[in-house]
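Support reply, case 0932

Customer input (verbatim):
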Amino acid sequence: MAASVHGGRIGNLPAEANEFIGRRLELAEMAGLLGTARLVTLTGPGGVGKSRLALRAAHAAKPAFRGGTWLVELSELRNPDLLTNTVAQATRLTEQTLRPLLGALCEHLAGPPLLLVLDTCEHVLAECARVVQELLAQVPELRVLATSRQALGVPGEQLLAVAPLPLGERDDAVALFAARAAAAVPSFALTEANRAGVAAVCARLDGIPLALELAAVRLRGQPLDRLLKGLGSRFDLLVSSARPRPARHQTLRTAIGWSHELCTPLERLLWARLSVFVGGWDVEAAEFVCHGGPLSAEDVLALLASLSEKSIVTRDGEGVAGRYRMLDTVRSFGADWLAGLGEEEAVRRRHRDYFRWIARQGEAEWLGPGQRMWAERLTAEHANLRLAVEECLAAPEPETALELTGGLWYFWFACGFAEEGRGCLEQALRRASEGGGPEHTLAVWAHRLVTLVPDDLEAAESVSTAYVWLAEERRLPVPALPLTGASLAVRGESARSAVLYGSTRQAPGGDGGAEFFQLMTLALQAYLLAGQAAFERCTSVAGRLRQECEKRGELWMRAWGDFFVSLAAIGLGRPDEALRPAREALTAKWRVHDRLGAAAVADLLVAAQAARGEDELAARLLGVSKSLWRTAGLPQLGRPDTSVFHREYERRLRASLGDARFTEAVREGGELGPEAAIGLALGGDGTEEDF
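Our regenerated output:
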């Protein structure tokens, strides 16, 4: 389960894949710098170990950062305009706000001391500098640790140049090579007899960690003396003929090139074609995107295993769920090779088309039993989907971009990427200024959908009104104002909204969009009936919604049915009956990454527990609710001065518990880890094992 900044002050640092070797002096210096400087940047060439060193330092620094330690991997980012989105997503800020995202991010990160690790900044350097400078100005307790091939240039930045490892026979380079060699060949051991040979290999590779790790794997097929001999002759040949480069950069490229030459022709071809992926890939994606010519789809799995054994690719997970990835430097080498083969355009097009197909499959199956799987799969493929969207936006046919961005409505809307989705849809719609056609209708409908967020309902209504005008002008078979109806009801105009939500005409798009609209209509009816205190009728409509969702095995909209059943039970004075459907709704919303929905359900559980007389638990849940609203990008809904709900329950619970105990209980709930917070809401005691 993903962690949350305000839901437990933990972070998202991945476990270290293997033993960290050496760098004692650098780690000591970094610990000192992070205690005094607000921005520390590790600089150095590719392959020198900046990312691994930053991760080790961040793990060591965890106790000092109650606000969490958060890794933001930027290597997969191609569009600098999405840097703030990437930081928001990494820190679990759900993009369901129409306010400027950077401002929402500043509020989201505010609180106890927090460490943000920005890894691989050099290709988006200017935007990194802008965002970091704003974050540091607005978030007093924030520290940033960056890795980059050059400085960010932000005032107050402290630089630490990361050099290759020391080369003596008893120094770090030898220790690293020996550790990785033993991992590749369990029978290998560093002895006095082979120590000089290992040191010679390390010297030949200039102590560059990535080069050492690639060379260590070669011991699977040859003894150390042959490795050293082959390495020496290969480097002499390449260094004499290579284009002028900085010596260490040339060494790394030569080491990767040497690994490349030791691959079979099909392995090299697959390596080159895999370079089009960003953020990793699974076997199915590799088979579709990389097959062709001498490389069949049936060959891909075995070749991936072989490249994994050679440390060209790494694998996370087991079985069909396993994902592969390449280090940036290795992928860059493959991309150069792909360009040299003249295949870059064709393979990138296959990559784009594969993820267009994935988006269509997800839409068709979203309202069904595979919904959680699709939420997790598309979140894992987010970087590749971004790249596919960029390719579509660059294509001469605007319909392609409209189809993909509009077809991802369920991902943008339900999985917490509304702000990014709005931007993509707006770009696609601007390119298709003439409009017309089902793709355009779908994109406008999707834009309206992701614009409906609680903190800017006026904007949602204006977009909806413009869309209805468009639909009527072109006589398109689209619904009237179902979402605008909800915005009117929030402002108390339920009489007018009751007229607007009643249309049963289909929404644009495929079957997924049409079915979604039908379910949304039932949800809006339940919402409006609850707002009119017609709780018996609300229960009936919400029950119909649940039944329709159960037929499909659908989770996301079914959770809203549970929500309204629970809300009606509270309204009817039956809070005990409200607990089970509310907890079922919270479980579903959390599992499909709908943080806004989870926050709304948490509010419901505050009300239910308070009505049951469980005042201390209700106060702790109020703290959970506030933290969830912040992770949803709507921190103002978690503050009693701006939320009617929180103001009312703060008054009641404070009067019941007293100021001191109420304040402490809210703080306890707000500082729980994410699993513990959800576990508490589901009936546990707030330990990590509850959920």
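We compared this against your earlier run and they match. Two observations from our side: The longest strand covers residues 142-148. Residues 344-365 form the longest helix (22 residues). Please reopen the case if you see a mismatch on your end.
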